[in-house]
Design a protein that fits this description.
mainly beta; two-stranded antiparallel sheet; 26% strand
């Protein structure tokens, strides 16, 4: 996750540092006055959202581990 603040406000408030482990629902930081966040989804995960979707902090599932995708898809092996 890369938090990017605008050139005028530059108000990023990180709650974690690079390399920290986070779990579902953890807050990782805040950008005051809005801006953008770039996310890189690692290998082994599938995006659960699409470009342009609204996401909500601590609520929206961003990605699902591929093995979990198979379990929930109804395919039996």
């Amino acid at each position: 996750v890369t938090q990017i603040a605008g050139t005028v406000t530059r108000r990023i408030v990180p709650y974690i540092k690079e390399g920290d482990f986070v779990k579902r629902g953890d807050r990782i930081g805040m950008i005051r006055f809005g801006s953008r966040v770039d996310m890189t989804i690692p290998p082994g995960f599938e995006p659960a959202i699409q470009r342009g979707d609204k996401v909500y902090a601590g609520k929206t599932v961003i990605a699902i581990r591929r093995s979990e995708t198979r379990k929930t898809s109804g395919i039996r092996r």
